[in-house]
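hey so u asked for the seq, here:
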Amino acid sequence: MDDRNPVRAATSLAALVSAWTDGFAAGVYARSPYDTWLHVGPDDRDPVDVLVEGGLDPFAFPVHVSAYSHHDLLRARQRECGVNPDHADDFDRQEELLDAVDVALASLRA
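ran it, structure tokens below
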């Protein structure tokens, strides 16, 4: 997921690609007149709403969930992944999390 509040986008790469394929079937992609990229929904619509209305998981797509006031969706996914939302924005807990990430990365390099 492309967001300042990181959260799991999908349970696997296969699930992520499947979600993107479902996006094509649901017709949620549009080409912007300003570039050649595919975008979710028309420029005048909240892309998260477009995905939810299409029955799709917005976290599997490159949209900024936090920027569109969908904190309820964000917090629900965080809880689903074992994150305590009450601690998600706590600076001291962020430091602990960063330390845990560093340990995990070091173990992967070993």
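The radius of gyration is 16 Å. The chain is about 45% helix and 5% strand.
lmk if thats what u needed
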